[in-house]
Amino acid sequence: MNWIITENNKKINANDIPTLSIEEIKSDIEKMNMRLIGFFGKQEFENVRLYVIMADDKVGRLHITSALFTPETKSYESFTSKFPAFHIFEREFYEEFGIEPLHHPWLKPVRINQDKYPFFEMKGDEVHEVAVGPIHAGVIEPGHFRFMCHGEKVYDLEIMLGYQHRGVEELFLKGKGYNNRLAESVCGDSVIAYNMAYSQAMEALSNTPVTSRAQIIRRIALEMERAAIHIGDMGAIAGDIAYSMGASIFGVTRTLVINTMLELSGSRFGRGLINVGGVNFDIDKEFADKIVKVLDEVGKTVDRTSKVMLKSPTVLSRLEKTGVVSYENAKEIGAVGMAARASGVDIDSRFDFNDTWYTSLDVVKPFKATGDVHSRFKLRYKEVKQSIQIVKKLLEKLTEFNNEGIINNPTQVLEANSMVVSIVEGWRGEVVHTALTGANGELLRYKIKDPSFNNWYMLALAVRNNGVSDFPLCNKSYNLSYCGNDL
């Protein structure tokens, strides 16, 4: 197969990326048994080049190829009928470049045309529609949810996003110098994951080394971000089922974690911590001891509260067998991250892509689960405990590099005609940043994939055959990102 093979955060020469026909790419993918993580276009004068990136999670390798569409080529035969995980990627590609994937089963807008959106409809005397959003009762971002119901039972949910037109990817191309502030603002509850993915991409393209001490501090912050958001979501799930004690305790406990981040960086969400070249703030022994003390308290509280909550018959009656997405469906649609793992799909880029700071820790992965709200709650609980364990081990490791600095001045010029794929396992799942440079080292394309891009359709599947009143609970059990989709 004519694909270039690379690794996470490894720079390659963009001119070495092969050009294949769509038919050849489709034939290769059928033989690969790999997972799609990138499918996007770039304008090349009058032509459009499509890049396809497949991940081999078993060995931590990325396979990249491309296809070239001339102005005369207005369409190609869709991948989605054979590979359902391509459905959202092909819709986005069509929306951006107008090249139609023929026979795509669900060729609808991803981010535009809300006024004329072709909603799925059902006919029947007792069938009715329930429309929710885009403006919601709570202070959340805009999204429209259209339920097709028979009585209280949901037969289908269609989710329409795209209300925010921020042009984030273009902003990366227009900015001068490095833009960590933009990177950490793309998705406000994943500041560390996004800033880390961006910084690693720029460091690879500029040949900027990062000290071991800075690498460890980044991962400490990443795991604290994971723990904090998971705990907050556990509280939100408790609140949605009127388990007030859990909602209150988890809310207070989350605050302990984010206040520790505040002491580290001056921001509860870690803004300003990461820069291209390293980190801006160090962790001395006194602060490390404080982090351990706080996390010990957090761990005990989460452990105690979760165990009490999960023994309650009324809690279990709401969580178990609610919002089920099977392993087969999750894998087929290309689900990622915590949502995929809660359906039994063993995927975690921290461990799958040979990050030695993680793979050297001998950390046990959380359990495989059954795909319901109970599994998504329990997996969060397990991952909070896992993250606390990881942070403690990384703090111990940090002492081995006391003589190192925390930031290097980055080279200001990016390598010409290069490409890098940077993957970071945020708390929702893999955050993927792909950067391409031109002949003068200028950024020509900056592509972002949030885990929610994969997983919004998973929420639609989860609601089927549940009561419409279960939607808030299902929705919160995923807690997907609107802004991660509406780039």
Write the layout of secondary structure elements.
Layout: E1 4-6, E2 12-13, H1 22-32, E3 35-44, E4 47-56, E5 61-69, E6 75-77, H2 87-97, E7 100-102, E8 127-132, E9 144-150, E10 153-160, H3 168-174, H4 180-183, H5 191-206, H6 212-240, H7 244-265, E11 274-275, E12 278-279, H8 285-309, H9 313-319, H10 327-332, H11 337-341, H12 349-352, H13 356-359, H14 373-398, E13 418-425, E14 430-437, E15 443-449, H15 451-463, H16 471-478
Parallel strand pairs: 6-7
Antiparallel strand pairs: 1-5, 2-13, 3-4, 4-5, 8-9, 9-10, 11-12, 13-14, 14-15
Helix pairs in contact: 5-6, 6-7, 6-14, 6-16, 7-8, 8-14, 15-16
Entry keywords:
single chain, 487 residues, alpha+beta, Beta Polymerase, domain 2, Cytochrome-c3 Hydrogenase, chain B, 2 domains, 4-stranded antiparallel beta sheet, 41% helix
Quick structural overview:
It is built from 16 helices and 15 strands. It has 487 residues and is α+β, with helices and mostly antiparallel strands.
Shape: globular
How are the strands ordered across the major sheet?
Answer: 1-5-4-3
Q: By CATH's scheme, which homologous superfamily of the largest domain applies?
A: Cytochrome-c3 Hydrogenase, chain B
Relative strand content: 15-25%
Q: Please identify the top-level CATH class of the largest domain.
A: Mainly Alpha
| Class by alpha and beta content | alpha+beta
Question: Architecture of the largest domain, CATH level 2?
Answer: Orthogonal Bundle
Number of strands: 15
Assembly classification? single chain
Domain module count: 2
Mean pLDDT across all residues, rounded?
A: 95
Percent of residues in helical segments?
40-55%
Q: How is the main sheet built?
A: 4 strands, antiparallel
Q: Using the coordinates shown, work out and report the CATH topology of the largest domain.
A: Cytochrome-c3 Hydrogenase, chain B
Radius of gyration: 22 Å
